[in-house]
Amino acid sequence: MYKFIVLLGVLTLSALQNCAFTQGSSLSIEAIMKGDDFIGYLPKYHRMLPNDDVVFEWRTGEDKKVYTYIYKTETGVIRKLTPKELTSFPINGFKWSKSRNEAVYAVNGNLFVWKRDKQEPSLLIKTSDYITDPYYSSDNLSVFYSIAHNLYAYHLKTGVVEQVVDFTKGEKDSDEKVENYLEKQQKELFEIVKKKNEKSHLKKSEGDLLNEFSIPKIYIGDANVYNAVLSPNENFVIFSTVIRANRKPTEIHEYVNSNGVAKHVEARPKVGRNEDVFELHYFDIMNNELIDLEIDGLTDLNKNHKYNEEYGKTIYKNKGVIFHGPYFNDKGDIAIIEIKSLDNKHRWLARIDFKTKKLVPFEYQYDEAWIGGPGISSWNEVAGNVGFLKGVNTCYYQSEISGYSHLYTYNFDSKKKQQLTKGDFEIYEATLSDDGSKFFITANKKHAGNREFYHFDIKSKKWNDVLVNDGKYDVLISSDESKLYYLYSFKNKPTELYKSINSPKEDGKQITHSTTKEFESYEWRAAEVITFKAMDGANVPARLYQPTAAKKNGAAVIFVHGAGYLQNAHNWWSGYYREYMFHNFLVEQGYTVLDIDYRASAGYGRDWRTAIYRDMGGKDLSDQLDGRKYLIEELGIKADKVGIYGGSYGGFITIMALLKEPGKFQCGAAIRSVTDWAHYNHEYTSNILNTPEEDSIAYRRSSPIYYAENLEDRLLMLHGMMDDNVQFQDVVRLTQRFIELGKDNYEMAIYPIEPHGFKEASSWTDEYKRIYKLFEENLLLK
Question: CA 466 → CA 433, 441, 443, 469, distances in Å?
Answer without folding.
Answer: 15, 10, 12, 9
